[in-house]
Amino acid sequence: MSAIFNFQSLLTVILLLICTCAYLRALAPSIIDKNKTGLLGIFWKCARIGERKSPWVACCCVIMAFSILFLQ
């Protein structure tokens, strides 16, 4: 089933996108920072969420990992 129609898969994809964008911005800020508007601005916004809400994102990642490993 597609990640769009399965809510847990959609949440997993969004968490992975946030974590990946935050990681890439930490390694090379110029890649993410040059596109703050438009379609590619989504990656900048995800990086900002990952940086500012880092403890919450980490908690969600742990909960999602537990859910995928033990509840499915």
TrEMBL record:
Family to which the UniProt record says this protein belongs: Belongs to the KISH family.
Keyword Membrane assigned: yes
Organism: Knipowitschia caucasica
Record keywords, A-Z: Golgi apparatus, Membrane, Signal, Transmembrane, Transmembrane helix
Gene Ontology cellular-component annotations: Golgi membrane
Record's bilayer topology term: Single-pass type I membrane protein
Record field: transmembrane: 54-71
Organism superkingdom: Eukaryota
Residues making up the signal peptide according to the UniProt record: 1-26
Protein's name in the database: Protein kish
InterPro entries per the UniProt record, alphabetical: KISH_domain, Ksh1
